[in-house]
Amino acid sequence: MGKPIRLPGLIDIHVHFRDPGQTDKEDFYTGTSAALAGGVTTVFDMPNNLVPIFTLKTLLEKMKIAEKKAVCDYGFYFGTDGKNITEFEKVKGLVIGLKVYLTLTTGKYLLDNGQKLEEVFESWPKEKVIVVHGEGDKIDLAINLAKKYKNKVHITHVSKKNDLQVIIEGKKTNSNITCDVTPHHLFLSKEQISAKNTSGVARRVYPERSRRDSPDGGGTANGFYEVKPPLASRVDQDFLWEHLKDIDAIATDHAPHTIEEKKSNTPPSGMPGVETTLPLLFTAVKDGRLTMKDLIRLTNTNPQMIFGFRQNKNTCVEIDPDEKYTIENENLKTKCSWSPFARREVYGRVQKVFIRGEKVFEKGKILAKPGLGRNILSPKSGGV
Ligand code: DOR
Ligand code: ZN
Question: Is 271 in the pocket of ligand 1 (CB under 6 A)?
């Protein structure tokens, strides 16, 4: 083992922990355990639960669950269908932002009524971020609304060259526009996936499901790679890498679905990621594709700036820079127990994690008691 490298704990501003409602896929304990195993010390959970977080009541229920189960720090987004605007005032002090779905994804919480959308942008408190799920002309729409109503707007999981170009233009005249990309759009492309269907060679990086569950030790279904926005082309992928300076954050969109569902004829969209992002990024640093400075900017300092909070300076992670290891489904802490990056060889295994100076993870073991994690908006979280 090499001399460990210490980094500030990663802040993942986009996860779906499915609790309450679909705890067969993930819950706050397994999700935050997976986060620690991946060196992530703060997660922001999305509102598209089975019963969406559109009311103060549903939000309070979710907060109670996290308070009991979380082993890392967390924050919540509120959701909207455009009909719950009167709730905004009640929840604004309890959430880190609002999530708006302008294109369809899991849960079908689409906000496609133009009038309602205007009302949402007009009414949401200006000091809190609106995170936008949208592609193509929906990105133009969000940028225009941000300008009109003076909102902070963050476009999440940008995957295509054209979309990033539009955002780069928008950012030139509006410093309130930010964006993120996911590790799966950085490290997987649609060409890679279709190549795997015709060539056995590509199997090395192929599925994704546990060997236990996979009679052929590999698998042929593409459902594991079904995600929204879809995996893009090599050209798009290269464009993201070439324009990292224009990107503000890396967020996983950790979206666990069960192996059964992903193997089915109607696989739901989404893939887990909270556990594998740091080693993937650190391996990119080793390969000279990313600087350590950018890794920290994209996963720690910028998320704090965008959302206006401070992570405690004793919340940090130690990784082994030298040992190469293979991502294995069997070793994952996410309840869905598969990864789109299974069988990849990576560096940067997480050795230890500290939250507010307390050791919460060491050598694959969660040391924190459920409930140690705190809501970052609580004064007790130890930030500012
Ligand atoms: O593929 C996706 N799955 N994209 C999203 O934006 C949501 C997510 C989910 O909740 O499953
Ligand atoms: Zn998402």
Answer: no
pLDDT of residue 383: 58
pLDDT per residue over 256-280, tens digit each? 999 999 999 999 999 999 999 999 9
Atom of ligand 1 nearest to the CA of 257: 11
Q: pLDDT tens-digit profile of 100-147?
A: 999 877 776 889 889 999 999 999 999 999 999 999 999 999 999 999
Ligand 1 neighbour 269 (Cβ under 6 A): yes
- Determine if ligand 1 sits within 6 Å of the CB of residue 48: yes
- For ligand 1, whether the C-beta of 255 sits within 6 Å is yes
Per-residue burial over 352-376, b = 16 or more CB atoms within 10 Å of its CB, e = otherwise: bbbbbeeebbeeeebebebebbbbb
CB-CB neighbours of 83 under 10 Å = 13
> So where are the chain's domains?
5-366
**If residue 346 lies in a helix (H) or strand (E), which one and from where to where?**
strand 345-346
Nearest atom within ligand 1 for CA of residue 270: 1
CATH for the stretch 5-366: 3.20.20.140
